[in-house]
Amino acid sequence: MKKLFIATAIIATAFAACKQGKKVTEAPKPVVLDCPPTYTYTADIKPIMEQYCTNCHNTNQKAGYNFLLLTDVKKGATNGYLLGTIKHAFGYSPMPEMAPQLDKPTIDKIECWIKNGMKE
Fold first, then answer.
1. Which of 34, 49, 56, 82: CA 20 to 30 A from 111?
2. What distance lies between CA 2 and its chain's CA centroid?
């Protein structure tokens, strides 16, 4: 009888602990950007690269990228490196190195440019 009481108490305690846990909710929905199709590399992205990236990512090809060249910017954009690093995503080295993360409008502009086909 004592064993039955102890087993019942353990089950009741476990059940009560489960009832007090966090509610299971849906995973957060990804933010969908409202991207204007007018962003171009020359007018919008190149100035960002020159201001924040090309001090390191230049002809020395740090990390394999020369962000003075559109082809390398597109390469980094296509393989996810560019967005992963500027968004400080898990598994990427945060960029710009030794500096604060770019502001959200700047990151959004780069992401929109990529999503809209990386126009020159």
1. 56
2. 56
